[in-house]
């Protein structure tokens, strides 16, 4: 077992706050690297590819769930929070990965999934076998239904995967699942649930984990007073809490008491551990989760959702920087993750494209412009990496991978496909195994074909193909991460009042001037030494849909 003393070297207040300007690389283990050649990525594969992450220059790795799971939701249905699914390896393999990462100066984050367990979790199996009103059922949210025989769900609450958030058990009661029916929600009013997760955090901290990404960090506590309140259902959680300010199961104030207890646990380790929340809420409500006694960070999804428009970016950036600073935190910049369409495709679509409909058309309606999408994604990456605060990169973004929009119905494994009645493909298109080599049955992912097929043409997007090519997306990321280390930490930056107009974003960090042109026409390029650029630069011009860092001091 890895002990706290084997964590990545730190030890002063300055280095204990490393997370404030860190670059964290998200790994979806199933799709990163296959170490045992069975078609599924695993922890051995991650360990073998740790050199790629060190060469890239990231500060930490965030591992999506690797716990024992029936995989009803890609591993976010956890059956055992203190072990590794045999598909991904063993606890020994996890310890070896932590040791290898720490040996290269890379810290490790893992996912904690506290809103729900798998239906295969021993607790839920015990609840199904126990009678109504039993202690076993009180760990979850069981309720009688409405109607003469309880034939209707207890409320109108909806699953984010489609359909009702309630499923009926053989004895007639209903249980709550805000996501898949095989992901029953825990009852966070139960002290046993709270004690269990306190211990889970300590377990992984003792194994050398440096931080935690908290899944659905704003939806754990529910108002379960009878009668349960119906809500106005809208497409997103952020809109839903706006329509229902006192929401019965989202953004309850009691959830922040849980985070305070977790912060005390994390601060009790040497060095202190870090927590970032997945919080799909409006900015003013998201900021309530941050502070010296709460979470360290929360994802700013407004940046991810922002259209390719300079004015929109200005507003998002200013709000994020000002809000995080006031909360005693830092902004967290993210372009994509395991749940969203890849930026290299999204940026190549007309403004306002409905991405669900686009995926249902196999990526043909409307047609994407791959060259434009990649060009903008590269520029957006340089914007992301130049901004003050922490940056999160999803695996494959450094290769410029596009969304695989044409997966067939037979290939889809995301539960969204079935739960939506085949009206939404889901998230498999951003989870296709990444290419490492120019050839092989899965382009170096493993010696066998991967669990999802890679498109033709991905050979030229592989790590091997891009390494050493100065014009490649991979080498641009490597150069940007090297250059980023020259920027001072903290959240301060200044807009350049003269240049920051129209389609151009312009701001200064130390002696660097960062320019992003979101328009299609070139703009004059000020004097300065080019540090890194997202496109070839003609003399004295910054082309459209491009970005550059200049050293002007």
Multimeric status of the protein: single chain
* Structural class based on helices, strands and sheet pairing: alpha/beta
Strand-residue proportion? 5-15%
Radius of gyration: 23 Å
Shape: globular
Helical stretch tally: 18
Written account of the structure:
The chain has 18 helices and 18 strands. Helix content is 27%, strand content 13%. It starts with 12 loop residues before the first helix and ends with a strand. The relative contact order is 0.11. The longest helix is centred in the middle third of the chain and has 17 residues, at 310-326. The strands form 4 sheets. An 8-stranded parallel β-sheet has the order 9-8-7-3-2-1-11-10. Strands 12-13-14-18-16 form a 5-stranded antiparallel β-sheet. The chain has helices spanning 13-16, 43-48, 50-56, 91-103, 122-129, 135-138, 191-206, 237-243, 255-267, 283-286, 301-305, 310-326, 343-346, 355-360, 370-386, 415-419, 463-466, 473-484, and strands at 23-27, 60-63, 107-112, 142-143, 166-168, 174-176, 211-214, 274-277, 297-298, 332-334, 390-394, 494-495, 504-509, 512-517, 523-524, 529-533, 541-542, 546-551. Residues 1-14 have low confidence and may be disordered. With 553 residues, it is of the alpha/beta class. α7 runs parallel beside α9 (255-267) and α15 runs parallel beside α18 (473-484).
